[in-house]
Amino acid sequence: MAKEERLSWKNFRAMIGPSFRGTSFYYAAVLFFILMAALAQVAEPVITGRIIDALISNAGNGLFEAIVPLVGLWAAAYFASIVFSELGRWLSWKMGNRVGNRFLVEALDRILGWDPQRFSETSTGVIGKRLDAAWHAAHNLSSRIINEIVPILFTSTVVFITGLWLDWRMTLVSLVSVPLAITLTLFVYAKTDKRQSKHMEAWESLSKRILETINNIVPIKAFAQERVVSRQQAKAIDKVTDRQLELNVAWAWLDFGNGSVRILARLVLLFVGAYFITQGTLSVGTLITFIGMLSYLLAPFDYTLADVMRRISEIRTAFARLSGDWFKENQIVNSESPVRLGKVQGEIAFDGVSFRYPGKEIDTLHAITLRVPAGTSLALVGPSGSGKSTLVRFINRFLDPKSGTVTLDGHDVRSLYLADLREAVGVVQQDTVLFNDTILNNIRFAKPNATQQQVVAACKRAQADEFIRSLADGYKTMVGERGVRLSGGERQRIALARVFLASPPVLILDESTSALDSETEHKLQIALKEVMKERTTIIIAHRLSTVYMADQIAVLDRGKLIELGTHADLLETGGMYDRLWKLQSGGYLPE
Ligand SMILES: Nc1ncnc2c1ncn2[C@@H]1O[C@H](COP(=O)(O)OP(=O)(O)OP(=O)(O)O)[C@@H](O)[C@H]1O
Ligand SMILES: [Mg+2]
Predict the structure, then answer these.
(1) Each residue's pLDDT tens digit, 422-470
(2) Which residue is closest in CA terms to ligand 1's atom 10?
(3) Comparing C-alpha atoms, which of 125, 131, 97, 129 is closest to residue 111?
(4) Same domain assignment for residues 130 and 38
(5) Which residue range or ranges hold the ABC transporter domain (predicted)?
């Protein structure tokens, strides 16, 4: 799992910048609407002041005529401010969705491009939470922030200019509290920014826990550990809310501080204003206008600033936590000028292939050299953990070796166009995972344009057609998440049907018949022989009845190739294979 990185401005821009492409016209329109709304909003207190002055000076005759146009203007200004601000808000939400969605698509594409090995080092819950938070952050940045700051900045600028025009002394007096408000906000921001990260961390670990619980529900129930898991989850939830509370309290203190500062500001304004009135240099109406304008003038420096800094802190944290996953280089990518594969013969050769998983003390595979001529079959056998599954992962580049090369038809697989290579090599993994979709769609996934007949033919070969038809919904049966509604052997046969349908020139079967009963397996062997005739096949199996007819059998032990030959050769050598064969065919081991 990539750690949180310090988020540089350059990285931040690289992450979000492209999602803003082509939106400047719309943002210009948003600014226009906001500007219009701000103008109308400022006009409103100014007109109120005029109405009051008119009331005072025209008491008696002519009052009605004097205030009617002013009141009409006041209503129009008020209405216009609502219309423009809603228009601006609507368009900025629309843009926010656009930018946010593009960002998420890009982030998900990046994850699709990860090296397969990275998924075994990543927790689904954590990455899910990070994506979710960054998506929200992108949306807030591209819509909410603009919606919140820009109108207030505009309004306060216009108010400021209007204030200077009405009475510059009162304008300055209105702003005396600003340095205090800014200092307060920056102080709280500095205090909370680290906590924001801790809060996010708590969220990630909760998200991870929840997913793990669901994925491990069988052992949890089987060992009756629900209470323990529930307690752990409650702890994780408390941690999230505790951290949230810490943050909320800090920001609430800031709001309290800002509120107090505002009271102070108004008192100062009132006293100074009253003094100017007694001096005869200020009208009562103007004082009331300034009191009305005070909160607009101060907003960018107190409540809004606080709100924006809080959001910036959230956005910064969300992007920082995702940035490690975002920028980490992938190793398994197309070379500079990848070779396109034409017709594949299917010769596979390993030459001195060694490998070590990250964090392991010793090599998992030691200098393996092996050649599988085109159209022949190789069986890999050996104890659990000896490296069989690892070895075949180099063929379709789920892993790249630490040293040595793997070639397909003489091309180093690293030089081949990755999609061509993966299309040429079909794999049935040791544990079959299916999509939560129908059987038909799961099989067709390998070849989306396959006809129903082709699917059925592939299923017949894989001994799957019969059981599928016996299900209530037949090929339309939903298999459940990861395929849980099917038995292990049924899942395996679906996986086989899928790869038979794709019919790749190179086929790798990793323990792909291990869950079948002997009778079904026997039937499948016949089909498998057919399938193997047409292509290069590598079979990994513990049950030797599956592998003895292979053209070559390779025995791996602790990452080393210890025996290689035909069934007959290896029985004659009398090594590990011979021992295993005797054990499995019901013989006994002589001392
Ligand atoms: N993704 C991984 N990350 C780290 N180590 C791994 C990973 N996958 C396998 N290993 C380790 O590499 C070694 C070889 O594993 P591999 O899966 O290749 O064995 P195998 O021969 O296929 O065993 P089995 O017969 O049980 O399937 C094991 O010790 C295993 O713990
Ligand atoms: Mg294996």
Answers:
(1) 999 999 988 888 999 999 999 999 899 999 999 999 999 888 999 999 9
(2) 357
(3) 131
(4) yes
(5) 348-583
